[in-house]
Write a structure and sequence with these properties.
Shape: globular
Radius of gyration: 21 Å
Number of strands: 39
Distance between the termini: 31 Å
Largest sheet: 13 strands, parallel
Helix content: under 10%
Length: about 425
């Protein structure tokens, strides 16, 4: 009910959009099986470059994938019919549904869930080339996609639907930043709705731990217990993560996007109705990593404890806030006060101005004659060249995530810009 009140402007989940991204024909070397087959034996019998196509129905899990592919020739486990995805069923607690120990494995178009408490959907222990795409995870008792035990290069999670999760939806990296590191991570165009982890668990939408680095973009995340997105930064100042073009709304206890450290570029995001800030910086564990962070062209609307929050007592260095737009609730601040280590430039406080066409209906297009329309250019190489919908910006880029008129935001897999 709370989600409906917060997000009444949003439309029905666009699950069917996933189907548009499947190949029209099966790749070469595809083998089709039915639910009567031994799923795990069939997967582990694949040669590099081969595809196992699962016909509709329920397949018994769990399975540990011990045999993978090669660079340019992964093994692929995919739905034979993207309109009728196969479900992998596992109601035990001694394993996870799918455990990937081998490199170069692609999972495409599978349904997983429900599971018992602590049982993950896809647990990754490989080292390179794992892709999880177009899958649906529902009512999991554990993490949908987890890579927290081995260092992995080139992990991709895209166009997945995760609904009604009892744990963090996606979790990448090791807590101490030393036991494992995820590099070249890409998390894009996923839809995560309703994360409700039991105390004392936080219940993130997407969590990227210390020294794990990548790109988090074009995701839609609604109704999480903790932050919709949190990254912890990196000790190596040459390793920069990007958080861009995400829509985060309705965190029940935290901020929409939480940064525990940099370097990071956070741009073209839209954050609404989160319990704390829209976008917040936190000196996590007093690590002193709040440096080299760019917050550019984000839109933050009526979050509970202010829109852009920066701790006053932390050591800050090279924090740039440029061309963001915000509407604060009564008694809250749209932007932080000026302090050492922070530069604020051409941000638009729209709390007492009508800057957006129809924010109640999730239309954050710039309103004509508003503060968003009259801002001049800024000579700054840190500004993004596109907007939330991936459209090119002009030389006088407007504050906020949208450069010009656009459709209202929707819950579901985000359409390709």
């Amino acid at each position: 009910m709370r989600l409906k009140l917060l997000l009444g402007f949003c439309v029905t989940v666009l699950v069917s959009l996933c189907c548009a991204f499947f190949p029209e024909t099966e790749p070469l070397h595809a083998k089709e099986i039915t639910p009567q087959a031994n799923l795990c034996a069939e997967i582990n019998g694949l040669e590099p470059g081969a595809t196992l196509a699962l016909r509709p129905g329920e397949y018994r899990g769990p399975c540990r994938i011990r045999r993978g592919g090669a660079p340019g020739a992964p093994i692929t486990v995919a739905a034979q019919d993207p309109l009728d995805k196969p479900r992998i069923v596992y109601d035990g607690q001694s394993s996870n549904v799918l455990e990937i120990d081998a490199d170069y494995v692609t999972l495409r178009g599978l349904k997983i869930g429900p599971t018992q408490k602590g049982v993950d959907g896809v647990r990754i222990r490989a080292h390179a080339g794992v892709i999880v795409e177009d899958c649906e995870f529902s009512r999991l008792g554990g993490i949908a996609v987890a890579a927290t035990q081995t260092s992995v290069r080139g992990l991709i999670a895209r166009r997945n639907l995760i609904a009604d999760s009892a744990a963090t939806a996606m979790y990448f990296g090791c807590h101490d930043g030393a036991g494992c590191r995820i590099s070249d991570l890409l998390v894009e165009r996923n839809f995560i709705q309703h994360v409700d982890a039991p105390d004392p668990e936080i219940g993130y939408g997407i969590q990227v731990k210390l020294n794990s680095v990548g790109v988090i973009r074009d995701n839609v995340i609604a109704d999480t217990k903790g932050p919709a997105i949190m990254i912890y930064g990196a000790l190596d100042a040459a390793q920069t993560s990007r958080v861009e073009r995400n829509f985060v709304t309705g965190s029940r206890t935290s901020s929409g996007i939480l940064l525990g450290g940099g370097p990071a570029r956070v741009q073209n995001n839209i954050a609404t109705f989160n319990a704390e800030a829209g976008i917040a910086l936190q000196d996590y564990a007093n690590r002193g990593l709040l440096r080299e962070i760019v917050l550019a062209n984000n839109t933050s609307f009526k979050n509970g404890s202010g829109e852009f929050a920066i701790p006053a007592s932390a050591q800050l260095a090279d924090i740039l806030m440029v061309k963001n737009a915000a509407v604060a609730r009564n008694g809250q601040r749209a932007f932080p006060r000026v302090q050492s280590g922070v530069t604020l430039r051409q941000n638009a406080d729209c709390t007492r101005a009508d800057c957006f066409v129809d924010p109640a209906a999730a239309d954050f297009s710039p309103a004509l004659a508003s503060a968003l329309m009259g801002d001049g250019p800024v000579a700054d190489s840190e500004l993004p060249r596109d907007d939330y919908f991936g459209r090119p910006r002009g030389p006088a880029a407007r504050p906020g995530a949208l450069e010009s008129a656009a459709p209202p935001l929707r819950l579901g897999i985000k359409l390709q810009p």
